[in-house]
Amino acid sequence: MPETTDAQAVTTNRDVYPLGETAAGSLTTHSGRHLSELTLAAVCAGDLGPGDLAISAETLRRQAALSEAHGYGKLAANLRRAAELTAVPDDELLAVYNVLRPRRATYAELIDLAGRMESVYGAVETARFIREAADAYRAVGLT
Predict the structure, then answer these.
(1) In the chain, N or C: fewer CB atoms in 10 Å?
(2) Domain holding 107: CATH number?
(3) What is the Cα–Cα distance from 36 to 17, expressed in whole angstroms?
(4) Alpha helix (H) ranges present in the chain?
(5) Is-contact 62 5, C-beta < 8 A?
């Protein structure tokens, strides 16, 4: 029998939610710290930085698998995009947010942005989302 990944295990076990309580030992933050290391004492001692408090791509993928298993496909898609976006620097992510607002970019600029997200960050689902937004904006005259 083939091995199962954590994400696959989540899809078959409906009793794992919330992950912070049932799988805390295997969850890590964006910086790689284990969830158990996030304590008030660590905060007060100055031992934690911003990356220590940010969610990891793997945790988001596990949440997506769990959401999908429970029939929440749109939420799962959002969580998968969020997992992709953990690789994007904060300043660039804010720029993407601003560009996605109506009339902030041309159709061509949005398509270029989608290509960049895909080629630089491997954010395939995010790129697809941006292309869909570009098409929708163009259809109603917002680009």
Answers:
(1) N
(2) 1.10.1510.20
(3) 17
(4) 6-12, 19-22, 40-44, 50-53, 57-69, 73-85, 90-99, 107-121, 124-139
(5) no
Asked if residue 80 and residue 11 are part of one domain, the reply reads: yes
pLDDT at 127 over 60: yes
Furthest-apart CA atoms within the chain: distance in Å: 54
Decide if pLDDT at 3 tops 70: no
Residue 10 has pLDDT above 50, yes or no: no
Residues found in the chain: 143
Nearest to 92 by CA among 127, 109, 116: 116
Q: Are residues 114 and 130 in the same domain?
A: yes
- CB contact at 8 A, 111 and 124: no
Question: What total number of domains does the chain contain?
Answer: 2
pTM above 0.85, yes or no: no
> What number of other Cβ atoms are within 10 A of residue 62's Cβ?
24
Please measure the distance between the N-terminal and C-terminal CA atoms of the chain and give it in whole angstroms: 52
User: Among 86, 101, 128, where does a domain finish?
Assistant: 86
Upstream peptide bond of 18 is cis (omega within 30 degrees of 0): yes
Give the number of other Cβ atoms within 10 Å of residue 114's Cβ. Answer: 21
